[in-house]
Specification:
This protein has helices at about 10-25, 50-60, 80-90, 150-155, 155-175, 195-200; strands at about 1-5, 35-40, 65-70, 95-105, 110-115, 135-145. With about 210 residues, it is of the alpha/beta class. The chain has a six-stranded mixed beta sheet with strand order 1-5-6-4-2-3. The longest helix is centred in the C-terminal third of the chain and has 21 residues, at about 155-175.
């Protein structure tokens, strides 16, 4: 189950939220809490999407204790395995939602994918890291191909901020749909992309 959302659409956060809700409800295992694992580093603009989402979500009392990876305390290639040991020890019955940046084609810059299954951090820059999570949210922040590391360093901050805001709002929207935090007013729930739209949607080149 994979959903593709164009962040340029007006209600993209609601599309992401309803897609995330579907992925969460698809998990029948006996989980007791949602845990958000935001992967990346604040030292490289293009790889800061995850920590920026973590920073945005950390101010929400509803899920404050289940957010890992922020601008101040990022989870990246050097500490990922240690962090995951700590997280699994503290949340043995958690449903893990992993969030990371990725690279893709130019025409799909700005898309976000939501999918059931583990996220594979580092794949976009040819790094071998252990898979993370039960659900993956990835944002295509720049183009793949030649010199991926340069693409990360030249990614616009506005792209990261806009996408992180949309992902954060989408996650909170998903929680509201599940009854964790009722919305002040009823918002329309957009339909997921059609099969034809999904076939034309981006192929994720791998998260960073």
């Amino acid at each position: 189950m994979t959903f593709y959302i164009n962040t340029r659409l007006r209600d993209s956060y609601a599309m992401l939220g309803s897609s995330l809700e579907k992925c969460i409800k698809d998990h029948k295992e006996d989980w007791t809490e949602l845990v958000f694992i935001c992967i990346g580093t604040d030292r490289i603009t293009g790889d800061s999407l995850g920590p920026y989402v973590g920073y945005c979500l950390s101010g929400c009392p509803l899920i404050h204790g289940q957010i890992y990876g922020t601008l101040e305390h990022p989870i990246h290639a050097l500490n990922l395995e240690t962090a995951m040991r700590q997280i699994t020890r503290q949340h043995p019955h958690g449903l893990y939602v992993a969030i990371d940046a990725s690279l893709g084609t130019k025409k799909h810059l700005g898309f976000v994918t939501v999918a059931n299954g583990a996220l594979h951090p580092g794949a976009g820059v040819q790094k071998e890291l252990p898979p993370v999570g039960h659900i993956a949210i990835t944002g295509i922040v720049n183009t793949s191909g030649w010199m991926e590391h340069l693409a990360l360093q030249t990614t616009r901050l506005s792209t990261i901020v806009t996408m992180a805001d949309m992902i954060s709002r989408g996650i909170l929207y998903a929680l509201s749909l599940m009854g964790y935090d009722p919305l002040p007013e009823k918002l329309p729930i957009p339909h997921a992309l059609s099969l034809e739209q999904q076939e034309a949607a981006p192929t994720d080149e791998g998260s960073l």
